[in-house]
Amino acid sequence: MTGTAFALAAALIAHSAIAATPAQSIPDDSDAAGEILEAQPDADDRMTIGVAIHGEGPYQFLIDTGSQNTVLSTALARSLGLRTGPSTKVISLAGVDEAETARIDSIDVGQRTFYDLTVPLLQDRHIGADGILGTDSLQHQRVVLDFDRNTIQIGDPHDFDRNGSYEITVRARKRSGQLIVTQAMIDGIRTSVVIDTGSSSTIGNRALERAMREHKKGTGMLTSVTGQTLPINFGLAQKLKLDSLEVTNVLIAFADAPAFKALDLERRPAIFLGMRELRAFRRVAIDFTTRKILFDLPG
């Protein structure tokens, strides 16, 4: 076995109709730089884009800012005739497993090409796509998710307007390739937040659940990209506050997810903020170079 991969894409078996509601404002125009790519929503309302591997494709890859590693489905690896390499440990939201790896010489995302990636191989039925584009391919980029236009922009942060006319800018810290907001508050509880575009819903750790003990709303199951499942308890937070940004009615699935421990986030309240909450905004930009997360509120 060699190395450790970190893949956090996940979906919940149980869903809620409660709507997340950010504060209202009038947004400005979109960023003036960065290639615009058409996105496709998957069954769990996450965003996928078409990529090419070794010049072939397009293949639908999930954009996952919560995953450290780009991932390939086993079916696509077979179709491309890739040789499997040493196994690696994969840490997901629902558990730890081992997976074979393969080497990709090149992957084209629009006009950008990333070279020489060693990727874990996971079952496509668990990924929900042909693969996952993780932060190993996005580290020096700004990724803009435009939910109004259903597009994704990926580009060099220096080519964009500094804050791109966004209404709210939140600073984050970087740990193991992830951007973590450490000054967030959930119902008055200081909470660390990871922006996770690969998860359909927001996942909270047990430390936050204990602090929110009066907010329980039900139970369900979490399914991860490894196919593992994990029991969860639902809770409803009245307010999430990120700097000057406020989101109300935040549904949180609490679980003993190994990913929290891997990021040293298991002892204090923390969440992976998923697509259900992120889609409450017009645009969200994740800038890995400047360690900023930018938001446009709906009009």
UniProtKB/TrEMBL annotation:
Organism: Novosphingobium mathurense
GO MF, one example: aspartic-type endopeptidase activity
Keyword terms, alphabetized: Hydrolase, Protease, Signal
Protein name from the UniProt record: Aspartyl protease
Any Pfam family hit: Asp_protease_2
InterPro entries: Aspartic_peptidase_AS, Peptidase_aspartic_dom_sf, Retropepsin-like_bacterial
Superkingdom of this protein's organism: Bacteria
Signal peptide feature range: 1-19
GO biological process: proteolysis
